[in-house]
Amino acid sequence: MMMNATLEQLRSLRLAGMATGLQEQLTQAGLTAMSFEERLALLVDREVHWRSDKRQARSLKAAALKYPQAVAAGPNMSNFSRFQNAQLIEAKFATEELRHDV
User: Fold this and answer.
1) Three-class SS string for 60-73?
2) What's the pLDDT tens digit per position in 68-85?
3) Residue 44 domain-assigned (yes or no)
4) Rounded distance, CA 9 to CA 15, Å?
5) Side-chain half-sphere CA neighbours of 54 within 13 A
6) Which of 8, 20, 40, 92 is a Cys-bridge partner for 97, taking CB atoms 3.0 to 4.6 Å apart?
7) Claim: this prediction has a pTM higher than 0.85
């Protein structure tokens, strides 16, 4: 009974990630061997990640991307020589070696 009240209080404080983490801790037998500080650290970590995930989901929704299922990946380096050439050209423009007078 007391744990139900604690879970409701966590939710009323808008600590839903921590409430979910506490529920999971109560169902897992191995976590009872952990110290109070370790369990508290897991709950706080769970809340931080939950808020971060929620913020990211909200940002992605607000972005209204054309392809929302697309994966953000790094540049394709399969054609590395072309990438190097682009860097060299940019460096030459920066030093005005390839200055084009208009």
Assistant:
1) HHHHCCCCCCCCCC
2) 776 665 555 555 555 566
3) yes
4) 9
5) 10
6) 92
7) no
